[in-house]
């Protein structure tokens, strides 16, 4: 990625390598991240989308009707929303983001972003009409932050990583708020979690990655379901 981004400019490549040697994410340096075949524009200070989230995005595209409505909470750079928009051009895809830098990054990626905490800034006209609600909120337990790779620990925003004592503070908030927005009976919630957190949601459907690890929960009829 660095060689491509440098475009044959030796001085530029050298500067990029120096930045990378400090642990700065390569996606920030080159200005983009690969995600499900797309190039997601990246800004320094914004959480880098991971390949492990692609399964959630793929499942969300399968659930979104061609003219449906999708909401991506805490969208970050807008990667999941970009996939939804690309797969269903006729659908209404909106997102929320509390961090102004990330919100600007997502807007630069063409995403309709409402700035604020989780569902707080969503327009009221979406209540009860959302077909797919996605969220990749922080789910790393606070005590585990120091065990993350240096690149992540020292550079990526802690607010995008720290999910509280058991890692599930924001996940539970998303589950609690979902019923207000989802279409009754058919609307579906998809939330990313860590592989060792599946036991906290025994009644949810579990989305597995290619290695068989749980990467997300899927819940329909959220009003009738509790974690």
Compact summary:
By secondary structure, the protein is α/β, with parallel strands linked by helices.
Describe the protein in words:
This protein is of the alpha/beta class and 227 residues long. The protein has one domain: Rossmann fold (3-Layer(aba) Sandwich). The strands form two sheets. The protein has a seven-stranded mixed β-sheet, with helices on both faces. Strand 4, helix 6 and strand 5 form a beta-alpha-beta unit. The protein is globular.
CATH architecture: 3-Layer(aba) Sandwich
| Shape assignment | globular
Give the total of beta strands: 9
- Kindly give the count of domains: 1
Helix-strand pattern: HHHEEHEHEHEEHHEEE
Rg measurement, Å: 18 Å
CATH superfamily: Vaccinia Virus protein VP39
Share of helix among residues? 25-40%
Can you list the strand order of the major beta sheet? Answer: 5-4-3-6-7-9-8
Q: Can you tell me the CATH topology?
A: Rossmann fold
């Amino acid at each position: 990625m660095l060689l491509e981004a440098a475009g044959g400019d030796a001085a530029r490549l050298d500067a990029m390598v120096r930045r990378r040697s400090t642990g700065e994410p390569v996606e920030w340096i080159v200005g983009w991240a690969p995600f499900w075949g797309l190039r997601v524009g990246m800004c320094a200070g914004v959480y880098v989308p991971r390949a492990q989230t692609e399964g959630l995005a793929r499942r969300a595209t399968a659930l979104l009707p061609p003219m449906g409505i999708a909401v991506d909470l805490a969208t970050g750079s807008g990667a999941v929303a970009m996939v939804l928009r690309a797969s269903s051009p006729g659908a209404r895809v909106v997102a929320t983001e509390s961090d102004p830098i990330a919100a600007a990054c997502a807007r630069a990626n063409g995403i309709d972003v409402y700035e604020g905490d989780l569902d707080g800034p969503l327009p009221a006209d979406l209540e009860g009409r959302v077909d797919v609600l996605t969220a990749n909120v922080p789910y790393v337990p606070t005590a585990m932050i120091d065990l993350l790779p240096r690149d992540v620990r020292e550079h990526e925003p802690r607010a995008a990583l720290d999910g509280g004592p058991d890692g599930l503070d924001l996940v539970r908030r998303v589950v609690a708020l979902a019923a207000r927005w989802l279409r009754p009976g058919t609307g579906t919630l998809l939330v990313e979690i860590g592989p060792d957190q599946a036991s906290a949601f025994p009644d949810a459907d579990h989305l597995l990655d290619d290695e068989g690890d749980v990467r997300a929960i899927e819940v329909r009829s959220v009003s009738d379901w509790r974690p």
